[in-house]
């Protein structure tokens, strides 16, 4: 046993020594495979060309483009040949450190340091970043300090070193005092590819986001697909029906979602076309998004790049990021306001000075109440990469951005922010460790103020996926900050068929008589979504061609718990000649006896006739072509008579009603299939007079 142990120890020591040996790319190290060495060395030389360009861009606070990825493709060829080169591991680590998959840099930079701590003057700088991502903050600060002391030109990068050390200090402290939130990966939206830029409707029911998953388009120079926009809807708490956005938005260029208008009918996005990036707007018509139109020249300029736009709360202004060729701080937050909502003439854009740092600013989200702006930034008091900050408006001016804290922000890239109107949930994206790959979308759930449970019962409604809570009974009322607005959503439908109806709606403040909102419901779904001030009584007037005018008043309570009113508006069809099939009227087989389950449909018809006393209708019965024509004529007439008798029995005057049996003479589908025959067996009513 002692001999075995000794042998094992020797072998282990030998393996460790070999694994820690730096095998440089010298021809003398590969005498037995000269061809393999030449191929690997050529790949390194080619990769170095891209590597140098990427590094120059990074330290100039500019985008490296695909240069790191192009370098990585070449370095991987050499890595397969010789994985024990400290310098090559370092370069691969740097490529990953500046990519969406930055977590992958950790093992390569650790290995480079193990093989040869002196392999590159910048190793300590990037090793510090690897420690930072790995949340080894003390080691990270030591590594950054070592770089500063050992690198002769470290003063040229002093701002970066100071910034990184401070990030580590802030991250260490923030992790020790985390915010009262859960941050969960939204697995049903994410893939192994980049999934990011979430824009959620104010009611939290629909989401639009960006992904470079396979889309059938041509791949780019590094084998990736272009960015397209996707949508999903929430059903029973889960995102479902993920699909490419319908309409003319997606092309073979990169499209990136930015922000949805608060009514969900307009969307800002930016599109990459060669070396130019501009902001566009698309409008929802029915179920499809129209081809985006480039924003006016005050926003989408000819010589600069603009990204990450957001509507202001009142719809008068656009916030966005712009970078110029002469810019030293990368992308900066700008603002342009309309001079008229009719002509949509915009003023020249100006910097929002208070929220800009000396580094790149990222995606922007202005809240619906106009009091806060969420900005992602590589500057400020961040923890590494992009962090999300909030700036609050006071006396008409934006305040200094404040970090949202851990675990919303991490040493990785954490950016984009899109919230539901009630403030309970928000969606962000991040490339933090543990995701599916690249950027993933995460859901932030706010706990609210601390609560003391009076009894323990299961309640998973606001629970984290990983940490469910048991707390739905409180000892005392917890004060919650009341919202000053409410989401008013709903849809307009036909009262009888329940099908969507496109309608014009006017909202009036009944206390002043002023019309405060006019809009048209969605032509395909009848849906609408607006925001209204809470604590008021409103009048609603709904008009649709061929339908009875509808009006009512309703209250929106002040500071309601969910800040959401959901209303279905049923419109009554009164157009002469309108034919409506009563699909929920049922008879016994071969008979004209109405079955009880027909009552709900018939009662809706009774209500329509009572609401519109001028209506006169014909009830018609129809059959398929099975059996003799005479029997079908008789059966259809008897069934029409049965419906008329029901209406009379429920208070409808007989002179407003006629009945007619058509047998199989007016089919609406083929009689060659069971489904077609089922459609032909129907009862209809037609408006004859109004």
Brief description of this entry?
This protein folds into 5 domains: 21-176, Serine Threonine Protein Phosphatase 5, Tetratricopeptide repeat, CATH 1.25.40; 181-446, 6 Propeller (Neuraminidase), CATH 2.120.10; 449-481, no CATH class; 485-571, Immunoglobulin-like; 579-689, 60s Ribosomal Protein L30, Chain: A, CATH 3.30.1330.
Walk me through what this model shows.
With 690 residues, the chain is of the alpha+beta class. The chain folds into five domains: 21-176, Serine Threonine Protein Phosphatase 5, Tetratricopeptide repeat, CATH 1.25.40.10; 181-446, 6 Propeller (Neuraminidase), CATH 2.120.10; 449-481, no CATH class; 485-571, Sandwich (Immunoglobulin-like); 579-689, OmpA-like domain (60s Ribosomal Protein L30, Chain: A). The chain contains eleven helices and 34 strands. Strands 6, 7, 8, 9 and 10 form a five-stranded antiparallel β-sheet that branches. The model is unreliable at 1-19 and 452-482 (pLDDT under 50).
- What is the 3D form? elongated
CATH class of the largest domain: Mainly Beta
| Beta-strand content | 25-35%
Q: At the fourth CATH level, what is the homologous superfamily of the largest domain?
A: TolB, C-terminal domain
With helices defined by DSSP (H or I, 4 residues minimum), what is the helix count?
11
- How helical, in percent, are the residues? 10-25%
User: Would you count the extended β strands for me?
Assistant: 34
CATH architecture of the largest domain: 6 Propeller
For the record, the count of structural domains works out to 5
- Helix and strand composition category: alpha+beta
The fold-level CATH name of the largest domain is Neuraminidase
End-to-end C-alpha gap: 104 Å
Uncertain runs: 1-19, 452-482
Question: Could you give a short account of the major beta sheet?
Answer: 5 strands, antiparallel
Give the C-alpha Rg. Answer: 33 Å
Q: If you average the pLDDT, what whole number results? A: 87
């Amino acid at each position: 046993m002692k001999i075995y142990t000794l042998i094992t120890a020797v072998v282990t020591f030998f393996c460790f020594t070999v694994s820690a040996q730096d095998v440089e790319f010298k021809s003398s190290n590969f005498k037995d495979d000269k061809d393999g060495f030449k191929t690997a060395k050529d790949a390194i030389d080619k990769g170095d060309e891209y590597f140098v360009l990427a590094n120059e861009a990074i330290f100039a606070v500019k985008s490296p483009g695909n240069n790191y990825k192009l370098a990585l493709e070449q370095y991987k060829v050499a890595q397969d040949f010789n994985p024990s080169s400290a310098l090559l591991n370092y370069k691969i680590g740097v490529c990953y450190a500046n990519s969406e998959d930055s977590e992958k840099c950790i093992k390569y930079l650790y290995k480079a340091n193990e093989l040869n701590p002196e392999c590159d003057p910048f190793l300590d700088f990037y090793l510090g970043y690897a420690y930072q991502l790995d949340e080894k903050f003390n080691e990270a600060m030591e590594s950054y300090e070592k770089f500063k002391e050992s690198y002769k030109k470290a003063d040229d990068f002093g701002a970066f070193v100071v910034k990184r050390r401070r990030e580590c200090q802030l991250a260490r402290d923030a992790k020790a005092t985390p915010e009262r939130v859960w941050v969960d990966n939204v697995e049903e939206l994410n893939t192994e590819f980049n999934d990011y830029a979430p824009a959620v409707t104010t009611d939290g029911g629909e989401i639009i986001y960006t992904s470079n998953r396979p889309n059938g388009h041509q791949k780019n120079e590094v084998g990736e697909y272009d960015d397209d926009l996707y949508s999903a809807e929430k059903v029973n708490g889960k995102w479902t029906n993920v699909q490419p956005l319908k309409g003319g938005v997606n092309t073979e260029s990169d499209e990136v979602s930015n922000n949805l208008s608060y009514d969900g009918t307009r969307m800002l996005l930016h599109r990459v076309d060669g070396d130019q990036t501009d902001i566009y707007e698309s409008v929802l018509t029915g179920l499809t998004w129209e081809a985006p139109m480039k924003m006016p020249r005050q926003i989408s300029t000819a010589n600069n790049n603009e990204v990450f736009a957001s509507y202001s709360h009142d719809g008068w202004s656009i916030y966005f990021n712009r970078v110029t060729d002469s810019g030293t701080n990368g992308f900066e937050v700008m603002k342009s306001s309309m001079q008229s909502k009719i002509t949509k003439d915009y003023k020249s854009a100006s910097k929002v000075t208070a929220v800009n740092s000396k580094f790149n600013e990222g995606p922007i989200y202005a809240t619906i109440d106009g009091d806060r702006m969420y900005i992602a930034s590589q500057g400020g008091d961040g923890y590494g990469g992009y962090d999300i900050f909030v700036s609050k408006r006071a006396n008409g001016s934006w305040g200094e951005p404040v970090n949202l804290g851990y675990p919303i922000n991490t040493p990785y890239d954490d950016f984009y922010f899109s919230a539901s109107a009630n403030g309970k949930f928000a969606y962000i994206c991040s490339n933090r460790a543990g995701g599916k790959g690249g950027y993933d979308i995460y859901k932030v759930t706010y706990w609210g103020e601390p609560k003391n449970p009076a009894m323990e019962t299961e309640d998973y409604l606001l629970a984290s996926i990983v940490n469910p809570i048991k707390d739905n009974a409180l000892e005392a009322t917890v004060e919650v900050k009341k919202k000053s607005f409410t989401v008013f959503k709903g849809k307009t439908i036909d009262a009888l068929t329940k099908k969507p109806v496109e309608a014009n709606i006017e909202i009036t403040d009944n206390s002043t008589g002023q019309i405060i909102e006019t809009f048209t419901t969605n032509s395909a779904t009848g849906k609408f979504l607006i925001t209204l001030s809470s604590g008021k009584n409103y009048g609603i007037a709904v008009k649709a061609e061929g339908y009875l005018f509808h009006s009512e008043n309703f209250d929106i309570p002040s500071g309601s718990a969910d800040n959401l009113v959901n209303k279905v508006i049923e419109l009554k069809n009164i157009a002469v000649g309108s034919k409506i099939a009563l699909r929920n009227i049922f008879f016994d087989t071969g008979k004209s006896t109405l079955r009880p389950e027909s009552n709900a449909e018939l009662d809706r018809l009774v209500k329509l006739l009572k609401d519109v006393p001028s209506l006169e209708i014909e009830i018609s019965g129809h059959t398929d072509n099975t059996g003799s024509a005479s029997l079908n004529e008789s059966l259809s007439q008897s069934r029409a008579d049965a419906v008329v008798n029901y209406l009379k029995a429920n208070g409808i005057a007989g002179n407003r009603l006629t009945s007619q049996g058509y047998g199989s003479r007016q089919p609406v589908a083929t009689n060659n299939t069971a489904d077609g025959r089922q459609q032909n067996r129907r009862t209809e009513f037609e408006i004859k007079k109004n």
